[in-house]
Amino acid sequence: MTLQAIIFDLDGVITDTAHFHYLAWKELADELGVPFDEAFNEQLKGVSRMDSLELILERGNLTMSAEDKERYAAQKNTHYVKLLENLTPTDILPGIAELLTDLKERGLRCALASVSKNAPTVLKALDLLDTFDFVVDAAILKNSKPDPEIFVRACSGLGISVNEAVGIEDAQAGIESINRAGIISVGIGSGLKHADMTLAGTSLLSLGLLDQLYQTIVSRETI
Ligand code: B16
Ligand code: MG
Q1: Which of 51, 78, 97, 154 is deepest in the core (most CB within 10 A)?
Q2: For ligand 1, what atom is nearest to the CA of residue 10?
Q3: Best of 114, 137, 172 to mutate for ligand 1, by most ligand atoms within 8 A of CB?
């Protein structure tokens, strides 16, 4: 078996929009009087907009009508989209452009597995819209990460099986999603559990390293 594709998370792997999500949620949480910090924000990574709002309301012991939830979620999104206006290709995280070029040259494919409905806007701002062979449509997802749905869909979209890919994520929910899909997982950042390999930052990523990880795990499993 050989490695056929790399599946990327967006926020925190391709670019640091994770910080923009943080700023937009923080402003809303402050308005609602709900304590909000980086540690709590970790729980929102890879979680859909509405599920994120539910977690914030739960933390503040707040209840509100479905109508108000829609309004607050839209308010957060307007702020987030405003922050995206500053995004340019220089915001692609270190090592990612090189990795994308290398995998194309080697004939491998790549997919994007982001639960963000703004993913196409972000890719456009980064000038990466045509780079990905398949982008999972966040609008049709039934479940946020850590459910494996998004990574399974990414493999189906590429026409490969889950044991022919490596997935890269910066959030714990994302690592769980990759693992539950049966895909080899690479974590970016600190404090991540259960990843097959963890790197401190995207600059440490290389196709050689991912291929080596893949070969090591596949050969171990076929013994
Ligand atoms: P939107 P990912 C996720 O993207 C973010 O990590 C998460 O913080 C955000 O709430 C979610 O997208 C939904 O984003 O509000 O833009 O639809 O990590 O899966 O790339
Ligand atoms: Mg992420």
Answers
A1: 154
A2: 20
A3: 114
